[in-house]
């Protein structure tokens, strides 16, 4: 069997989401080809070719593919689908946008957000915000799958796959790109960060986020996260949101500050290796999943924590 | 313009989900059910479009058991005009839902279909995209803003990893809603009373000729492995010491 993995990239570089989804794609058992669809995307294709276990890289370069719009990208994948037994993408906003469109036109029921490959046709996936884990067997001959990348190790480098340029289909003419407003930040991406400092409703305001949470994150070289309550209250932008309705993360260290630990938040971070909870409410549910709990006012202890980190690292 | 809004009956988001001991699924007996929260955002958006004079009629659709009428009534009480219930007790997967919705779109000819980006039961995040694909329409997923343009197109701002993206789409289109699109209203008592008189068309899956046989066979449903609570630390110094020397993450 042969699997087509749709790469996550920004044309200039390959996201590590691709390397993680590659591990899931390889678990299906067949050859894996990676599709890099974009414009001037050869650097991303070259990075994909270096990943271990990739048999071939397909590079589609075209103006219409520059911004990853669903309609032309789905048309491209659909044109390749005949040659593949499985089509896989990381469950990023890009993958979630495009892949169901492909699945519907192939008359295939997609398996979303898999966390484990049990067999080439059988997968584990979380439902109800991770409160239950379902094992499903996909009966369609062709598989269309999105991968929860936090559940898979990134594939290593060491490959030297050939890069084949492929034709770009005509634009379906339904959609156009207007603009992106991306958060400009020197901080690591939430989904690939080794350390995340996250704030909840207890942080109290967007100013306090800037004053307390982000300095600690910067001291640790960490990404900044937020609970849905903090996002809903306007303390933090939505793309910082960790949880069922936001991003699912699994860093080495997750520091939850002023987060009570609603089920929907736990669903997004409970696979972190080490969880620290700082909360003044000793009954907060977050303490039930925390490896280290500190019952204290975050405004008292975070500055203290920064000073202590200086000592340790100094 | 007519707006079609599919709504799903799911376990209320505040309810703690219990897995059946025999692994056959999640226990739905005697559990509070509500409208999927993302669908409430969809209904609200449709009502705001009508209030702004950009939509004339709002039609709700639900696919599910008889009790899904209550879900439709909730949306009618918010302000939608009428409902369609496609009654079935069988589970219906997103692909089959999209096929049924396609048939309803062809009959009702809306200019806009607004769906929640995902249902909080199976968390699939597929139906809107699948419906757009089957109709050959443009899709604006994970929307935080919708703006109609004078040339008959619409700008949709989308919540993407790393920020926001704005795209321009041809009408008719499929929109899927993200959290920050709006804040849904509560239905007032007079509107709840009025909603009881609004019509709901009763249909069956057979009316649309769609095969809803599952394509995913559920092998088992289990509780996730529990994470054990760790220790309480008394001070910041103790915390840093443990992170460095016990956990090795600093």
How would you describe the overall organization of this protein?
The complex is a heterodimer of chains A (314) and B (250). With 314 residues, chain A is of the alpha/beta class. Chain A contains eight helices and 16 strands. Chain A has helices at residues 16-27, 42-49, 70-80, 93-105, 206-220, 228-232, 263-269, 298-313, and strands spanning 2-6, 31-38, 56-61, 86-90, 111-114, 116-119, 122-127, 132-138, 143-147, 162-165, 175-182, 195-199, 223-226, 253-257, 274-279, 292-295. In chain A, strand 6 and strand 7 (122-127) form a beta hairpin. The longest helix of chain A is centred in the last third of the chain and has 16 residues, at 298-313. Chain A is elongated, with a radius of gyration of 21 Å. Chain B is α/β, with parallel strands linked by helices. Chain B has a single domain (2-246), classed as Rossmann fold (3-Layer(aba) Sandwich). Chain B has helices spanning 37-51, 68-78, 94-108, 127-135, 189-195, 236-246, and strands at residues 2-6, 9-11, 33-35, 57-64, 82-87, 112-116, 138-148, 153-160, 163-170, 173-177, 200-204, 216-222, 231-232. In chain B, the strands form two sheets. A nine-stranded mixed β-sheet of chain B has the order 9-8-7-10-6-1-4-5-11, with helices on both faces. In chain B, strands 2-3 form a two-stranded antiparallel sheet. Chain B is globular, with a radius of gyration of 21 Å. The N and C termini of chain B lie far apart (58 Å). The model of chain B has no long low-confidence stretch (mean pLDDT 96). Chains A and B meet through helix 3, helix 4, strand 5, strand 7 and strand 8 of A and helix 3, helix 4, strand 7, strand 8 and strand 9 of B. Strand 8 of chain A pairs antiparallel with strand 12 of chain B, so a sheet runs across the interface.
């Amino acid at each position: 069997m042969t699997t087509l993995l749709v790469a996550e990239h920004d044309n200039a570089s390959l996201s590590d989401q691709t390397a993680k989804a590659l591990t899931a794609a390889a678990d299906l058992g067949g050859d894996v080809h990676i599709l890099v669809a974009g414009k001037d995307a050869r650097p991303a294709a070259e990075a994909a070719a270096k990943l271990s276990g990739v048999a071939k890289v397909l590079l589609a370069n075209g103006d219409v593919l520059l911004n990853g719009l669903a309609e032309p990208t789905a048309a491209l994948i659909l044109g390749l689908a005949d040659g593949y037994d499985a089509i896989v993408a990381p469950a990023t906003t890009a993958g979630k946008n495009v892949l169901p469109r492909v699945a519907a036109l192939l008359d295939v029921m997609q398996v979303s957000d898999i966390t484990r490959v049990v067999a080439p046709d059988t997968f584990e996936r979380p439902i109800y915000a991770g409160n239950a884990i379902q094992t499903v067997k996909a009966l369609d001959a062709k598989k269309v799958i999105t991968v929860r990348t936090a559940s898979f190790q990134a594939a290593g480098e060491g490959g030297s796959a050939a890069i084949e340029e492929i034709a770009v289909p005509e634009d379906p003419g339904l959609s156009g790109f207007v603009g992106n407003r991306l958060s400009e930040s020197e901080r690591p991406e939430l989904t690939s960060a080794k350390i995340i400092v996250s704030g909840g409703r207890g942080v109290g305001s967007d100013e306090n986020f800037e004053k307390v949470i982000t300095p600690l994150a910067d001291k640790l070289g960490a990404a900044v996260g937020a609970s849905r309550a903090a996002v809903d209250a306007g303390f933090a932008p939505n793309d910082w949101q960790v949880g069922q309705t936001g991003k699912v993360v699994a860093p080495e260290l997750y520091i939850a500050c002023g987060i009570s630990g609603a089920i929907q938040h736990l669903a997004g971070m409970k696979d972190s290796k080490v969880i620290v909870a700082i909360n003044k409410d000793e009954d907060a549910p977050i303490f039930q999943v925390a490896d280290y709990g500190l019952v204290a006012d975050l405004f008292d202890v975070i500055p203290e924590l920064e000073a202590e980190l200086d000592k340790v690292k100094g | 313009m007519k707006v079609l809004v599919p709504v799903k009956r799911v376990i209320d988001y505040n309810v703690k989900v219990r897995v059946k001991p025999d692994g056959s699924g999640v226990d739905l007996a005697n559990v509070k059910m509500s409208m999927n929260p993302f669908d409430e955002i969809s209904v609200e958006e449709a009502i705001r479009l009508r209030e702004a004079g950009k939509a004339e009629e709002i039609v709700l659709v639900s696919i599910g058991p008889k009790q899904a009428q209550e879900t439709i009534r909730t949306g009618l009480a918010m302000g939608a005009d009428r409902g369609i219930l496609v009654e079935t007790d069988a589970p219906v997967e997103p692909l089959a839902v999209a096929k049924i919705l396609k048939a309803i779109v062809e009959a009702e000819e809306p200019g806009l279909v607004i769906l929640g980006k995902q249902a909080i039961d199976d968390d699939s995040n597929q139906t809107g995209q699948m419906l757009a694909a089957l109709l050959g329409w443009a899709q604006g997923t994970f929307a935080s803003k919708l703006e109609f343009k004078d040339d008959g197109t619409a700008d949709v701002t989308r919540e993407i990893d790393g920020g926001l993206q704005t795209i321009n789409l041809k009408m008719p289109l499929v929109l899927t809603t993200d959290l920050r699109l709006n804040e849904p209203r509560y239905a007032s008592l007079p509107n709840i009373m009025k909603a009881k008189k609004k019509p709901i068309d009763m249909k069956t899956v057979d009316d649309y000729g769609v095969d809803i046989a599952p394509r995913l066979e559920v092998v088992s449903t289990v509780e996730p492995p529990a994470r054990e609570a760790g220790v309480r630390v008394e001070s910041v110094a103790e915390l840093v010491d443990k992170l460095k020397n016990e956990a090795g993450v600093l």
